[in-house]
């Protein structure tokens, strides 16, 4: 097996290791730049960022590395913003707000789909103007118009898929490669074809990877539960050309995850993460905590992303400020026992050495 392949050539990186984009402040400029400097690909989780913030971070990273790095964006999907569903969901959060001594919320300030779409287009313009070489997407596939514009500027495009059909659609739309996300993965599910049943139907990486690589010809990047050289070697055996890892980078020294978040991931066992849509309206895997358990009965009728995400914003912000893990969204994959507090350089060096021992050639 070779660690250099079509994917590493296309991304101009030494090792087929991508630091997952992690929106919400985890992917600091240092984390991204250190990954790229160590021979992997650093990615900025820019889904929630305003265009000016994205531009500033790109400039900061460019000062720290001359190597390629990428930007990841959320593809907007239509969502329902009916007043009734918002009020019901907001009511369910009342007791949580009381526990955190937060005032009731009656002004939701929720953007509609067209505004979200407009903001996405502005984010795309920053990627083009700042000449970022790689752009990846989750939650959907951008329009043909957006894809064509990015391609015109020679930007390498990566999609996300959680099923074979989603991978096929990514290839058909013109993506250069696709990240295949197994059910072990931390954070939001990147799927877009079967959202309602995401939690019970999701497919594990060992099953999904060979089925996807049989169905498409563009390079496949494996994601979900990969933490070390063993995971990299196994992924490549199953047909992937590289890996994208979130949880392994989240606990790194350079990551911007809240110390309480890092501590939670470092201390739990493999069966202590769950799927929830209570934080954002989209299924995501995180450490089981008080908020998730309390909201479990309301989960099915909560409004879609990004509505529920906006409704819970004050709760997450207060929990963050108070170092309170009970109400934070502690996204994490299932391979928590393999998480370490280490530098990015050590993580990548060890992975490559371990993969070499397992006969993956560099
Ligand atoms: C804290 C956290 C935030 C994440 N945010 C994003 C994101 O903004 N965009 C994205 O495409 N994937 C995101 N993901 C998912 C990762 O891309 C990847 O699928 C996942 O981390 C792989 O599983 P692992 O955490 O077990 O390595 C996130 C994952 C985590 C843990």
């Amino acid at each position: 097996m070779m660690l250099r392949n079509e994917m590493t050539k296309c991304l101009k990186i030494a090792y087929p290791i991508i630091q997952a984009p992690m929106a919400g402040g985890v992917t600091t400029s240092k984390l991204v730049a250190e990954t790229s400097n160590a021979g992997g690909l650093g990615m900025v989780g820019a889904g929630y960022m305003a265009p000016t913030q994205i531009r500033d971070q790109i400039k900061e990273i460019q000062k720290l590395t001359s190597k390629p790095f990428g930007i990841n964006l959320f593809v907007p999907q239509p969502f329902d913003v009916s007043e009734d569903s918002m009020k019901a969901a907001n009511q369910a959060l009342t007791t949580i707000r009381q526990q955190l001594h937060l005032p009731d919320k009656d002004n939701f300030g929720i953007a509609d789909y067209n505004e979200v779409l407009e903001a996405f287009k502005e984010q795309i313009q920053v990627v083009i103007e700042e000449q970022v070489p790689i752009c990846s997407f989750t939650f959907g596939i951008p329009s043909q118009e957006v894809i064509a514009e990015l391609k015109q500027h020679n930007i390498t495009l990566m999609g996300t898929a959680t099923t074979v059909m989603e991978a096929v659609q990514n290839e058909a739309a013109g993506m250069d490669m696709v990240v295949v996300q197994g059910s072990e993965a931390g954070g939001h599910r990147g799927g877009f074809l079967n959202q309602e049943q995401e939690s019970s139907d999701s497919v594990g990486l060992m099953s999904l990877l060979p089925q996807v690589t049989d169905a498409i010809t563009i390079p496949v990047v494996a994601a979900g539960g990969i933490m070390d050289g063993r995971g990299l070697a196994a992924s490549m055996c199953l047909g992937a050309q590289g890996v994208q890892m979130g949880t392994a980078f989240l606990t790194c020294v350079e990551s911007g995850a809240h110390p309480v978040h890092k501590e939670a991931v470092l201390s739990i066992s493999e069966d202590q993460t769950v799927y929830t849509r209570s934080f954002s309206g989209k299924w995501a895997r995180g450490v089981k905590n008080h908020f998730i358990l309390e909201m479990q009965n309301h989960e099915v009728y909560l409004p879609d992303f990004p509505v529920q995400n906006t409704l819970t914003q004050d709760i997450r912000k207060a929990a963050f400020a108070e170092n309170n893990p009970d109400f934070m969204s502690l996204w994490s994959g299932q391979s928590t026992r393999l998480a370490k507090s280490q530098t990015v350089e050590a993580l990548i060096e060890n992975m490559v050495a371990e993969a070499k021992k397992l006969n993956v050639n560099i």
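DSSP finds 17 helices and eleven strands in the chain. The pocket of flavin mononucleotide is lined by residues 20-23, 26, 45, 47, 72, 138, 160, 181, 184-188, 190, 223-226, 244-248, 250, 331-333, 335 (CB under 6 Å).
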